[in-house]
Automatic annotation (TrEMBL):
<keyword id="KW-0145">Chemotaxis</keyword>
<keyword id="KW-0472">Membrane</keyword>
<dbReference type="GO" id="GO:0071973">
    <property type="term" value="P:bacterial-type flagellum-dependent cell motility"/>
</dbReference>
<feature type="coiled-coil region">
    <location>
        <begin position="35"/>
        <end position="69"/>
    </location>
</feature>
<protein>
    <recommendedName>
        <fullName>Flagellar FliJ protein</fullName>
    </recommendedName>
</protein>
<keyword id="KW-0175">Coiled coil</keyword>
<comment type="similarity">
    <text>Belongs to the FliJ family.</text>
</comment>
<dbReference type="GO" id="GO:0015031">
    <property type="term" value="P:protein transport"/>
</dbReference>
<dbReference type="InterPro" id="IPR053716">
    <property type="entry name" value="Flag_assembly_chemotaxis_eff"/>
</dbReference>
<dbReference type="GO" id="GO:0005886">
    <property type="term" value="C:plasma membrane"/>
</dbReference>
<dbReference type="Pfam" id="PF02050">
    <property type="entry name" value="FliJ"/>
</dbReference>
<keyword id="KW-0653">Protein transport</keyword>
<keyword id="KW-1006">Bacterial flagellum protein export</keyword>
<keyword id="KW-0966">Cell projection</keyword>
<dbReference type="GO" id="GO:0044781">
    <property type="term" value="P:bacterial-type flagellum organization"/>
</dbReference>
<keyword id="KW-0282">Flagellum</keyword>
<keyword id="KW-1003">Cell membrane</keyword>
Amino acid sequence: MAEAIDNIRPTPGDVFDVEARLFFNQFWLKLKSTENRQISEIESARESLAKLRQQLMETMRERKILEKLREKHLADYQRELLREEQKLLDEMALSRYIRNENTQG
């Protein structure tokens, strides 16, 4: 684009329009400014995306840890319930045995 602007030269028989040249120069500067701003915005968006991806990975790791911890606590709770249930069944069986011994002898 800069070359195109620089190549605006009067040809024999043309009238060189200084205003047109100034307009194109201003247009070019505005275009470069817009391009630089957009490049900056893209870089900023990339940095934000990288941070969000990092946060997502950390959150996923924490969630996985919490899930494993929950599963471990659930397994511990179920083992304790089974132990208590077995204890109750043993006591019931012992009571029945003692009651049968007392009625038979």
